[in-house]
Hints:
The chain has 579 residues and is α/β, with parallel strands linked by helices. The longest helix has 17 residues, at 7-23.
Amino acid sequence: MNQHVTIAEAAHYDKVRAIFAILNGEREADLLLKNLNILDVHGETVYHGSILVYDKRIIALNPDESILKVKEVFDGEGLYAIPGLIDAHIHFESQLAHPTALAEAMVPCGTTTIYSECLDLLSAAGEEGVEAAQKLFKDYDKLPYRLYAFAPGKKTAANVTEAVLKMEPVIGLGEFEHFTYSSGNDDDFRKAAWVRAQGGFMNGHWGVTALSDMILNYLPAIGCSNNHDVWNEKDLEKSVRYGFPTHIKFGVGSAEVIKVLLRAIVDRKWPTDNFMLCTDNISIERLLTMGHMDWIISLCAEMGINPIHAIKMATLNTARSFHMEDKLGSLTPGRFADIVLTDSLSKINPRYVFKDGELVAKDRKLLTNAEIDYSGMCKKGVPGLADLTADQLDIVPLEISEDGSKAKVYLFDVYGRGHAKFYQEVWVPLRDGKVVPEVDGVKYSRLSVIQRYANGKRHIVNGLFKGVSIDRGAVATFWPAPKPYFVVVGEESAEMCHCVKQVDTYAGACIVTENKVEKAVMPLDIYGVMANMTVSELTAAAGSIDAALEAMGNRNEGEPVVNKLLSLFISLHRFRLMH
Length: 579
């Protein structure tokens, strides 16, 4: 070899020589998976065969076993082999778990790759945003899933975004802030310029039918790479027409939305190559009880999408949209050996999950995980509610009827996230000058949205709440991004005030109180947005919140209460209800 060959070139030379030798029976491969029904996502067929793995990648389909030398042979039991599943868009903070805890719940579902936002964590970290990113991504390559991340396109200072764009495993710019990019904000121009110069990706954000024609053209024109913020058929139509690789999402509080979107795809007969699958926001509870991309694929099949097309929407389509189809998304030579073995294609049941050719999960249990200490990211609370008084949480009518019998107030709906119905002005009874918390005879709990650190008069919004209903006591939580605010749900102002002040002693937490006695607490010590817990500890804490509320009359369905409450902050920001 030439003496000027670089170290990298020499390493690749050794690799290609090794692969040649393995396929000629002269060297050992790492793993042979036999007796498989392999899904060919390119040809949309299934064939019986075997897969040969060396150095984390697939190097052969149906190799000549008569000459083969291999370290390990795995019997696939006649199961279907499909590519490792991919979540095209997930927020790291949404499930409240740090990266290794997330692995415990997610990888057994067959997910081997995620494209992740981290904007809320870095926004919560404030001036420590760059340091927080470094700690978050520490040893990311040791995780039992493949991580690609995005620098924050909103909620953080431009200098934080610029620094994070240079880190691994960051591949582009995360969600833009609609209220700034639509007004020609110079920081957004700079962020877009930085990622364009790097040849990275840009995540879109905002339901496309809510965009002006100018902005709808502007985003793809500057290189916006995808769109995950679709809520209805019209959103899908425009997203496809304007060339966005479009993400169909399941998020907290939007169980019906994904069905609306899938019905539209089936009814309109749109080519499924336009679509990828993602979660956006998800709870650990849902991962453990219903699944992840495996469940969404199964739902697609149930809604009438060809099962193979549904699998492609969580594998090859996503890999192609991020220009990584040479690495991910299919079971073909040269791709990473990320493989899921399932007994069905229409109802995904991940029996075995391989990442880089290593068996990492079996029968819904994680077998191997990274050991990463995140305690250095835990923070102490900085209280800000010392001067808050109970009367500030009383509902003051927006308007009173002429006869004085009714009051107009806000009604917030946890299931209305992303829609105009998230908050509405409704008429309720007014008796003896006090608001009666019921609409058309249906009783609702009260909700207060409270600014943590006041500069002058504290910003507080009070109203009624649809989504968490309790007969007594209170529950409160906190979210620091992009602005530090609390939400508290209850029946009586003094109890609500006490409960939220208990949360104020933590960096972040969800707390239930009754008669001013703490009944359950779930600390979120990592910058107020993540719990420094294992999955079992995290689910136990979330379960204790639900159990305490159930004892106080809460009739909860679906996601844990803590996740429902935290999902509110997305819409509170979107509808400009935080100062």
